[in-house]
Amino acid sequence: MSFEHLLFTKEDGIAVITLNRPKALNALNKALLLELSSALEQVENDSSVHALILTGAGDKAFVAGADISEMRVMTPHEARAFARLGQAVMTKIERLAQPTIAAVNGYALGGGCELAMACDIRLASVNAKFGQPEVNLGVIAGFGGTQRLQRLVGAGIAKELLMTGDMISAERAAAIGLVNHVYEAAELLPKAKELAKKIAQKAPVAIKLSKQSVNEGVNMDIDRALSHEAELFALCFATEDQKEGMSAFLEKRSARFEGK
Ligand code: CO8
């Protein structure tokens, strides 16, 4: 499948989707969101893909937000539909079977910060800048930002970012837990690939269920979440990978996981 606003590559079981509208700092318009949705389906249905990296084209931006020129003339009805489209794409990323890494190589503002937050892990280059500047435009975050930001960094810091529209540095983003690691720009993608490969070597079903347990548990009370974790833990014991992983440990050899 070829895309107009995305670059899609796959190597050694790692897929890389590069959002590619550099003239608009990779802003998310409807066409790009629809293409991203198709690309995600392609990844989900490809069992040879063990991890996905999302990044932005050019050296300036990951994604500078939803496309302001497209939004400027929207009616409330159209705006709701656009927000629902963006939210659906973010949720698709969050629930993707494979692990996802955002390699944030510059501005991650508005919808760009929301896209990064939908990924499992965020790595940033030293020049990355994060923010939810929607209040400067007379709107609120609409692709999940009011919800995912508070779950990641707590309600107090989330409200400060959502109410001031301030941009923060990669260093500050790491300090508040919005990004996991910060690297020099040239190291960002190699580090993201290294991390993706490391995760890809582990038991695939266990990776998928770890992700599911964290994602679903966060919206449950602790008793339900623990019972859910126990159910998913039990499911692992119906896999070949559990037998292989534990046998390999006891036999003092490397495990060969097949994702079954
Ligand atoms: N949408 C459309 N075009 C954009 C966007 C954007 N979000 N961001 C940048 N561009 C365009 C600029 O218009 C400019 O185009 P042109 O060259 O044709 O004039 C080009 O990209 C380069 O941008 P700048 O010249 O502004 O570059 P600077 O280096 O001077 O500034 C900034 C970079 C600081 C990133 C600046 O471009 C900026 O502030 N961009 C907007 C950031 C922003 O406000 N993002 C939030 C958008 S709102 C949002 O994401 C809400 C999501 C939920 C939607 C809910 C649905 C209704």
UniProtKB/TrEMBL annotation:
Instruction: Write the record's keywords in alphabetical order, separated by commas.
Output: Lyase
Instruction: Please give the Pfam families that the UniProt record associates with this protein.
Output: ECH_1
Q: Which CDD domains match?
A: crotonase-like (cd06558)
Q: Does the keyword rRNA processing apply?
A: no
Task: Using the record, list the residue span of the signal peptide; answer none if the entry has no such feature.
Answer: none
Task: Read off the SUPFAM superfamilies from this record.
Answer: ClpP/crotonase
Give the GO molecular function terms. Answer: hydro-lyase activity
Can you tell which superkingdom this protein's organism belongs to? Bacteria
Q: Does the keyword Lyase apply?
A: yes
| BP GO annotations | fatty acid beta-oxidation
Q: Which PROSITE patterns does this chain map to? A: ENOYL_COA_HYDRATASE
Q: So what family is this one in?
A: Belongs to the enoyl-CoA hydratase/isomerase family.
Q: Known PANTHER family for this protein?
A: ENOYL-COA HYDRATASE, MITOCHONDRIAL (PTHR11941:SF54), ENOYL-COA HYDRATASE-RELATED (PTHR11941)
The protein's name in its UniProt record: Crotonase
Q: Which organism is it from?
A: Collibacillus ludicampi
